[in-house]
Automatic annotation (TrEMBL):
Top-level taxonomic group: Bacteria
Pathway: Porphyrin-containing compound metabolism; siroheme biosynthesis; sirohydrochlorin from precorrin-2: step 1/1
Protein name, as recorded: Uroporphyrinogen-III C-methyltransferase
UniProt-listed Gene3D superfamilies: Cobalt-precorrin-4 Transmethylase, Domain 1, Methyltransferase, Cobalt-precorrin-4 Transmethylase, Domain 2, NAD(P)-binding Rossmann-like Domain
Signal peptide feature range: none
GO biological process: cobalamin biosynthetic process; methylation; siroheme biosynthetic process
Keywords tagged on the record: Cobalamin biosynthesis, Lyase, Methyltransferase, Multifunctional enzyme, NAD, Oxidoreductase, Porphyrin biosynthesis, S-adenosyl-L-methionine, Transferase
Length: 402
């Protein structure tokens, strides 16, 4: 069969979807993403479709299909199981000269949806004589090839602040990984998953921010200068950080420096260790009936230091979960202060070192004992300290963790 491939500009145009079950649930999001005016005719909807309707992204006519429904549609999707009902829609579509996609019968269809992979502005659509499985296999091959060698795209400009996640290279986001693969310059940090850097094309300029030979604040100025300088040269710069750039990552300062220099910035949030490291040790930072809040605090400045911006007395009064980052060195002062301000010395505490990596280890203790036990166990940074009753929940969860 010879097919004529085509890409449709469907935005603002009426598309009729007949059926409200699982097939429609899979098709409708793509139509919405393309801006189509989606109209669903079906006696019932799945909860996911109902959510689109409730949000105003699609319109629902709650009844069975009637041939007149096709009038005025640019495209029809048949997503019903009943072959007779489907044939009725096909017939009406044919009569109105509207293309009709049929999930139930590819030979009866006048249009097919291809298997698709999107990479920024590039969309690859694969059809294979209606054999959807084979089309998807080819699509996967192409997607893989594009991930390895992304085509240059005008979308990439300026500086992307990309969160690299807590350490496991699989915990970077899909978008983060795609932008990283397209970078001309990568400014990386000590805590980024190193293996991601091994995948960079050889011509990429890799700058190790940890090796910039100045004091901490001068080094940050130098990083800002490098980001702006390379972006101004027309290069696409990725600033890759561990976790999320805006959680104790100075991402805000870098975004400001770019804004002041007129350099466009893309923010790609990352999986922050403040949530991920506890989670991987079986600790949910919130838990029904246990903690309805969690607070993430930096422990890099001791509680009694004049530069401290943290209200430790207020934190000691909270029932919820406290997650302390960069807190190992000051752990004795922090735990002593929390106890002195009224938090019980029996409060469960966990310390999770190098969460998500092959070196992950964790220790469970109490607020009163954790300092000594952490030292005795030889726990080292990077580690998060989790304080609160949610730590006790982990006892029931950890046995199930792979
Ligand atoms: N932007 C990062 C945090 C940077 S501050 C994020 O969102 O995760 C550095 C601190 O993060 C470390 O001292 C440690 O407390 C914590 N940290 C980072 N990666 C970690 C990991 N894999 N396991 C445990 N703690 C981690």
């Amino acid at each position: 069969m010879s097919l004529y491939p085509l890409a449709l500009r469907i935005a603002g145009r009426r598309v009729l979807v007949v059926g409200g079950g699982t097939v429609a649930t899979r098709r409708v999001p793509g139509l919405i993403a393309a801006g189509a005016q989606v109209e669903i005719v079906a006696p019932e909807l799945t909860p996911a479709l109902q959510a689109h309707v409730d949000a105003g992204r699609a319109v629902w006519t709650p009844r069975r299909f009637a041939p007149g429904d096709v009038a005025g549609a640019w495209l029809v999707h048949v997503a019903v199981d009943d072959p007779q009902a489907a044939a009725q829609v096909s017939e009406a579509a044919e009569e109105h000269r509207v293309f009709c996609v049929r999930a139930d019968d590819r030979d009866a269809a006048t249009a097919w949806t291809p298997a698709v992979t999107r990479h920024g502005q590039v969309t690859v659509a694969v059809t294979d004589g209606g054999d959807r499985r084979r089309a998807m296999a080819v699509r996967d091959l192409v997607a893989h090839a594009l991930e390895a060698a992304p085509p240059a795209s005008p979308e990439f400009k300026g500086v992307a602040l990309v969160g690299g996640g807590p350490g496991d290279p699989e915990l970077i986001t899909v978008k983060g990984r795609r932008l990283l693969a397209a970078a001309d310059v990568v400014v990386a940090d000590r805590l980024v998953p190193g293996i991601l850097l091994g995948e960079l094309r050889p011509e990429v300029e890799l700058i190790d921010a940890a090796k910039i030979p100045y004091g901490p604040s001068a080094a940050q100025e130098e990083i800002n200068r490098i980001l702006v300088d390379r972006a101004t040269q027309g290069k696409f710069v990725v600033r890759l950080k561990g976790g999320d750039n805006f959680v104790f990552g100075r991402g805000g300062e870098e975004a400001l420096a770019c804004a002041q220099a007129g350099v466009p910035v893309v923010v790609v949030p990352g999986v922050t260790s403040s949530i991920a490291a506890p989670a991987l040790a079986g600790i949910p930072v919130t838990h029904r009936g246990v903690a309805h809040e969690f607070t993430v605090v930096s422990g890099h400045i001791p509680p009694d230091h004049p530069d401290s911006l943290v209200d430790w007395a207020a934190l000691a009064r909270l029932r919820g979960t406290l997650v302390v980052l960069m807190g190992l060195k000051n752990l004795p002062a922090i735990t002593a202060r929390l106890i002195a301000e009224g938090r019980s010395a029996d409060t469960p505490v966990a310390v999770v070192q190098e969460g998500s990596t092959a070196h992950q280890r964790s220790l469970r203790s109490t607020l009163g004992a954790v300092t000594g036990e952490t030292a005795a166990a030889g726990i080292r940074p990077p580690a998060v300290v989790v304080i609160g009753d949610v730590v006790a929940v982990a006892e029931q969860i950890t046995p199930a963790l792979g």
